[in-house]
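Bench log, entry 3. Co-assembly request; chain sequences pasted below exactly as received.
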Amino acid sequence: MIDLRSDTLTQPTAGMRRAIAEAVVGDEQKREDPTVTALEERAADLLGHDAAVFLPTATMGNQIALRLLSEPGDEVLAESLSHIFRYELGGPAVHGGLAKATGRPPWSGSLASGQPSSQRISRMESFAAPARSRS
Ligand SMILES: Cc1ncc(COP(=O)(O)O)c(C=O)c1O
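Structure output for the full assembly:
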């Protein structure tokens, strides 16, 4: 089994700790932190995007991504064991005006197949939130 919780399972090496201690820091809000700027530029370059933004937590990243990929009133379809569903509680409602539905009824289908919206909803259509498929 490969455990991908690298952020919480692995320990920084001595070189990593040294790099952290010696990093040039500045006011990130004023774009005066050259280390964060370099990290963002590297990430954007690696992923082929114009820009990237450093987010200090994955929960923050999830919440911002949900808000960017949806409109208030939308429903988020998430696997029942997903972090968003299990641990982020009312975050999508507070930050994005979103409702959450799990990978169990009333909708079915695999999120991995990219087809949840066409297979979902056994409830009355008049109570269905708009569904957008995002990958
Ligand atoms: C998919 C996913 N989202 C969010 C988190 C939460 O990370 P953080 O503690 O950085 O907010 C985790 C943590 O394991 C995660 O696996």
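Strands lie at 75-77, 99-101. Residues 13-47 form one domain.
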